[in-house]
Design goal:
Length: 155
Amino acid sequence: MQKYAKRDHKRAARMLGYSLTLGTVEGWEAASEIWRLRLTATERAALSWAALRSLDPDQATMVAETVLGGAGAPLPPLMDPMTDARWWVEHASSAEIESYLLAILKRVNPCVLDIRARKTLFWTLWVSFCSRDQRAFLARAKGKWEVFPGSGVEG
């Protein structure tokens, strides 16, 4: 490495060693700054990719969301709830969207949403299914039991 590596790559690698040795937030923040100065965006992306791949999916998601941030809990609407909801969902992480959507769907009943709203909700979900899942759903609704691939529903 001493003979063939670029000077900036040597410095970046040395900084990795320092940060691993220190094991502190400050050490990793310093590494981040050195890498920003010494490595290209493509090199930093590749480094990030490799580090995230070394984690299990839940850990990788947690790290990425910590860096990128999420939207946090939705705030009370200031003006129009739909405008606020659209803003929130554009800034929310996948985990936040899934968590809130599942909680909302569990709360949906005729007292909360009228039939028009429930039909709109159903249609929005329906068109998000691939044709294979739509066929499996219709077969199930007609009384035939089929497995929904990837859904955890067993036949």
